[in-house]
Design brief:
555 residues; alpha+beta; seven-stranded mixed beta sheet; five-stranded mixed beta sheet; 20 strands; 26% helix; globular
Length: 555
């Protein structure tokens, strides 16, 4: 069996942003990348397109991509990858596995990955003839070294606590043994954990600043916070790819400035999960775009306020309850998101398998929120909370809306503005009370185990992938059941328990399901046209991640 079916693992659902993107899609194609009708860049009509182009590819040129944040390192063991970090990494690296259009894990850099009947032993066969950018051949030794590096790293290691051993069986065969049955394990190799960097990148303390991979583009230059440039890999193992000679990323922190740059023609592509861009560009005939609204991931990307459950005053459940009851999500969607994003109550908005537990999440009730604040203040005095966010003006608007909503129920909110890299670092170390956050897009809920489990939580001041530091034994038991069971009904029941407990623990104050979009100029072709090595469609654009290798520029 060469694929691990998401549908075998969990019933259907909906399709990282801020936060460490350990699990996510990863690009890679055959020479005939696109296929299908509806050419992504043809015609003059406005509105969403397929982004897949059936016309003959044109070679050459420089593809200019605008992004609104940067990150700290390309090295998978140390990189604080958000969606843009994953996009950068996918430019120079390949992942062992890739997610197909149905949300299932398929071989990419490997030829096959076959589990045993108990799904606790996975045998991987690598593709022959793959070389790193420095000419080093890819063998099982490099794969074992890369996996062990992320397994042992402080940042990424907690995501692989259930991985027991990884060993080379021969030069082209790797065997993974897990501590328990783990049907979702192959999906973990589709993102940051599965990117294979060269031994030189991993052994050099500064290797993350000039990465070497097997990917479609070769690292050229990177000035963090400004730009990243890469040139086409002439020896890429996917013959005929990529189509453009260069890809140049520019960091433009404001989503409004990104939009202006696209319209002015200084960039060719931008991605955004901000509704203002969708509102402005969905009817603009000079732009084409595709969204991930119907993308086949088991769990959507969620916009939320995240609470540090170990930091006063939000360590007090009454405070988190007051915040949940005191925030008018429906009004926020109308005012800030133009009604384009659906409000979210629970982890699985719109999924009928989770309708009952989604209904348990608090709805807006200002009177109840005020009563909770008054009850808290009788014990502990005036309620003051710090809310962290980034410097983007749109995030400032959200912060001000939240500040007013909570002022109306008696909470004094101070807004703290930091850069995104610092925001993520503060979350890792627990140096925050509440923070703007977007996360959880994943093929299956098990992919989010690392963010929710007790073993991945740590005291404030220590690195913790359970950013909220919520330690609920009932959540932990449900996560273990969901991870190990081979029965679909049991898995659904387990994640319903997680959803129910989050409605009571409130480590995350949900706001909305994020719909991300990739916007391009009309000369950009096949920007959503990823195929897998066997020619079948990949899960192309999703969660703000654009893959440039199959894209070309028309004359």
């Amino acid at each position: 069996m060469n694929s691990i079916s998401r549908r075998q693992f969990l019933s259907g659902g909906f399709q990282t942003a801020a936060g460490l993107a350990v699990v996510g899609g990863m690009g890679g194609l055959v020479a005939a990348c696109g296929g299908g009708s509806n050419a992504g860049g043809s015609g003059s009509s406005s509105g969403e397109v397929s982004g897949r182009t059936s016309t003959t590819p044109r070679r050459g040129g420089t593809l200019r991509v605008g992004v609104n944040s940067d990150f700290n390192s390309f090295a998978p063991p140390t990189g604080q990858f958000d969606a843009n970090g994953l996009m950068y990494a996918a430019t120079v690296f390949d992942a062992l596995m890739f997610i197909d259009a149905n949300g299932d894990a398929q071989p990419y850099l490997c030829q096959s990955m076959t589990p045993n009947a108990e799904q606790n032993v996975f045998t991987m066969t690598l593709r022959p003839g793959v070389v790193f950018h420095d000419g080093t051949p890819l063998t099982s030794a490099e794969v074992v070294g890369a996996i062990r590096a992320v397994q042992q790293a402080v940042l990424t290691g907690p995501a692989l606590l259930n991985l027991d051993t990884v060993k080379a069986q021969d030069a082209m065969t790797v065997v993974f043994t897990t501590k328990t049955p783990w049907p979702a394990f192959p999906l973990y190799l589709t993102g940051q954990l599965g990117y294979i960097a060269s031994p030189k990148t991993l052994s050099d303390p500064k290797g993350g600043l000039h990465p070497v991979g097997t990917g479609p583009f070769v690292f050229d230059a990177w000035v963090p916070g400004s730009y990243f440039h890469a040139k086409a890999n002439p020896n890429y193992w996917r013959k005929g790819l990529p189509y453009v000679d260069r890809v140049e990323y520019s960091t433009i922190p404001s989503v409004v400035s990104l939009e202006q740059s696209l319209l002015a023609g200084t960039i060719d592509v931008m991605t955004s999960g901000d509704s203002i861009n969708l509102h402005d560009l969905m009817g603009n005939s000079s732009v084409q775009y595709v969204t991930d609204a119907d993308s086949h991931l088991g769990e959507p990307n969620m916009g939320m306020t995240m609470c540090n459950t170990e930091a006063a005053p939000v360590s007090d459940l009454r405070v988190r309850q007051a915040m949940a009851y005191g925030f008018n999500i429906d009004l926020y969607q109308k005012v800030h998101n133009f009604g384009l994003y659906p409000p979210a109550y629970g982890l699985f908005p719109g999924n009928p398998d989770y309708a009952k537990t989604n209904a348990m999440y608090p709805r807006y009730d200002q009177a109840r929120a005020k009563a909770l604040v008054q009850d808290y203040e009788k014990d502990k005095g005036p309620l003051k909370i710090e809310y962290a966010t980034t410097s983007d003006p749109r995030n400032a608007e959200t912060a001000q809306f939240l500040q007013q909503q909570y002022k109306d129920i008696g909470i004094d909110v101070t807004i703290k503005t930091v850069e995104q890299v610092q925001l993520i670092t503060d979350a890792l170390l627990g140096q925050y009370q509440t923070t703007a956050w977007a996360q959880f897009a994943a093929p299956t809920p098990d992919s989010n185990y690392v963010w929710w489990s007790i073993p991945t939580s740590a005291p404030i001041g220590q690195s913790s992938l359970n950013f909220a530091r919520n330690k609920d034994p009932l959540v932990q038991a449900a996560l273990e059941k969901g991870r190990t069971s081979l029965n679909k009904a049991d898995r659904i029941a387990a994640y319903n328990t997680v959803n129910e407990r989050f409605a009571k623990d409130l480590p995350y104050l949900f706001g909305y399901k994020i719909v991300t979009a990739c916007y391009t100029r009309k000369n950009v072709q096949n920007f959503n046209g990823l195929n897998l090595p066997d020619g079948s469609p990949a899960l192309s654009f999703t969660s703000g991640i654009f893959y440039p290798m199959c894209t070309w520029l028309s004359a």
